[in-house]
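G., before I forget:
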Amino acid sequence: MIAVVDYNAGNVFSVISAFERLGQSVVLTSDRDTILSADRVVFPGVGYASAAMKELEMRDLISTLRMVRAPFLGICLGMQLMCAFSEEGNTPMLGLVDLPVRLFDRSVCRKIPQIGWNRVYKYDDPLFSGLDEGAWFFFDHSYYVPLSSGATAARTEYYGFEYTSALRKNNFHGLQFHPEKSGKAGERVLLNFISPEVEQ
Amino acid sequence: MLARRIIPCLDIKNGRTVKGINFLGLRDAGDPVENAVRYCEQGADELVFLDITATIERREPLSELVRRIARNINIPFTVGGGIKSADDVQTILVSGADKVSVNSQAVRNKRIIKESAERFGSQCMVVAVDVRRNSAFPSGYEVYIDGGRTPAGLDALQWAQEAESLGCGEILLTSMEADGTRNGFDLGITGLLAKTLSVPVIASGGAGSMEDFLSVFSDSCGADAALAASVFHYHEIDIPQLKAYLQSNAIPVRL
């Protein structure tokens, strides 16, 4: 069973539908026991970092999410919330990885937010098994996670600027792009996430 | 480097895809979800659904159709038509759409752009701008609303800039004169907006050949995405072939 974390995170319908198309049973929940006993935990997110943290706090989810031992997948803002601090509302976050989240530099990246299909390189996570180098995924964000030698599991370039488009620490995986909106490549990533290979 | 996007557009009436025939009648063109799935499989980068049903005669609530689409496709999609308030925007987004497009309503009530952008983010707010040549306006183009029936008295570029400053995340620009001609996109106004604005510009109206897409994406024009309906619907342009053609001409596309 896949638990999708419910904290009013905007559009979760597409994420749930994507897993259901793969034949998975999905529950949308903020219940601690359900989350901690799930086979997989998906942490979606569209919105504003500091508001999202307040919502997680209100639902008493912060300590619960830190305790997850099953494969965990943060998507878009969900990945950013896994980091330690965000410039978006200057908020401390879950701190699952010790990285900051920053706003793209307008003098380098002319169009913010980045909306559209971009390529992902240098995979270092079984989530990307079976994909060719430089696969295309759908991105939609203004803030980014910088490259980190410990946690970066894939990278992407925007106006020549390289940043972390996937990160990993132990059972915690994060994707800056939306696999549920990324056609066949995205479907492959979600399939890999539910495969036993990701548990190793 | 972002890929230039190819966006098929589907007009929806009473829950069915429809196609105009010489601006006179509408012909049933199938189930929107089936059409959408086919476009996904062909490699479309995004889809736009425009509901042209008058509100009063809606048989299936739009949100129900949006949910059916979201359940079945795995690429981003935009929904437009009859959206009058930020609450309407929320209903469409919660049903699974990624973006909402507003046109006449944005001109009549600019607050809808600002309020929706603040509540749901700029990335989901598309402002559709229909324009027609008029030398009395600084950019040479005037904005029209109500499906092209009413001149809005606004300059095309100034309105697009205002929409951007109100928080819209993308402009869907349709040249009414080019629309339906299949003689190519209007490169003049498209290029002006693409170069001036800092939000992406989707070019619409006039696509007839693969060369038209190359022109609108080339550096001299610079559109971020191109939208078309009939050339895709009637299989006159095959999406995989179009993308291969663009790539061979150094336009970045998702293959």
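The mean pLDDT of chain B is 91. Residues 5-248 of chain B form a domain with the TIM Barrel fold (CATH 3.20.20.70).

More on Monday.
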